[in-house]
């Protein structure tokens, strides 16, 4: 994975098992010590709340999808900083 990221395109799939599907394979890879992002791999295994979430999402794809959708709605409701130009739709 690191070699792919460092190659000419600089791109790599988050997981090689299901690269064209948005699913919970990323969490299974973290548990297998094959995480793409070093920061995520480093955080997993420290015994904190994030470990519980990684383990839950690795086995429960529906929980991952549900929580991801909630997080995206919350992020979409965060207003831009004052003075930042915004696009009016």
Automatic annotation (TrEMBL):
Its cofactor is Ca(2+); heme b. Binds 2 calcium ions per subunit. InterPro entries: Haem_peroxidase, Haem_peroxidase_sf, Peroxidase_pln. The keyword Cell inner membrane does not apply. GO terms for biological process: hydrogen peroxide catabolic process; response to oxidative stress. Residues 1-89 form the Plant heme peroxidase family profile domain. This is Plant heme peroxidase family profile domain-containing protein. Belongs to the peroxidase family. PROSITE patterns: PEROXIDASE_4 (PS50873). It catalyses: 2 a phenolic donor + H2O2 = 2 a phenolic radical donor + 2 H2O. Keywords: Calcium, Heme, Hydrogen peroxide, Iron, Metal-binding, Oxidoreductase, Peroxidase. It comes from Triticum turgidum subsp. durum. Transmembrane segments: none annotated. One of its GO terms (molecular function) is metal ion binding. Ca(2+) binds at residues 15, 18, 23.
